[in-house]
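#struct-queue
[09:14] JT: dropping the first one here, sequence first, then the structure tokens:
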Amino acid sequence: MPAGSQAIAERKAIRELIRAKSDREIARLLRQSYRVLNLHRRRPSTISHRERWTDYEIRLLGRIRDEELAKLIRRGVTAVAGKRESLGIAILAPQRIRWSKREIELLGKRSDPGVARMLGRTRYGVQLKRHSQGVSRCWDGARPLTRAEEALLERCVTGSWPRH
């Protein structure tokens, strides 16, 4: 048997013997603390924290969200955020889409959720824009007032409400 293959066979036999023994027994045989031994038996991380950043990875910082970039380049989110901050690169903020005149004209003509679906915006965003423009809410589903309700409303507005 060649020397290289013999060394491989010996290592394999040693691994099998070690697998058969408990961690505490191995620690006793090696005259090591169980805790010290256990530290060395932990699985190594798949990602080295000391790996250098490539130019490609650095160019991506701030262009996509930190979470997405971390998955893409197989680094931690905190590592990506830390590197971006250390280089003074601003966090990615989605560009705000300006409101066109046609979009603003829709405010108050339909319900906020309806306008939001039409424009591909959030309901809250539509509501904020409507408030900032001073446009009142659309009452799409509201029923028309009855004659009695209109008369009552008229009396309230004109001040001819009976006083007690």
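[09:21] JT: and here's the second one, same format:
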Amino acid sequence: MSILTHLNESKKKHSIYFRQIVLITGYRDEELPKLVGQQIRQMRKGITLQDLAYQIGMEKSNLSVIENGKSNPQLLTYARIASALGTTLSNLLVIDFNFTAFNEAPVKYVPRKHG
């Protein structure tokens, strides 16, 4: 039985295991910001996007982009978000991500334009 067949059969029973395998085999640079964004959205339950944006001095639209994983903000921004949510930066970054696969994936360097 191939690993994909096995995963398809046990997907419902072992959704966490399946998700970890997908992260290992389907790694993309976009995965990490997307997972952190999901974590932010989950942690701000009961707080509107607008209220959180106001607390950290950011436009609502910019915070939305972060939550949707379309942006890779500075660490300081994540620290401000964590503080406004009443948590720590380390708690904000507790996500289901395989950092070993992240390290093994080929790196594609794209310089950031500052302007």
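[09:30] RK: nice, looked through the second one.
[09:31] RK: The helical segments are 3-10, 15-25, 31-43, 49-56, 60-67, 75-84, 89-92, 99-104.
[09:31] JT: good to know. The longest helix spans residues 31-43.
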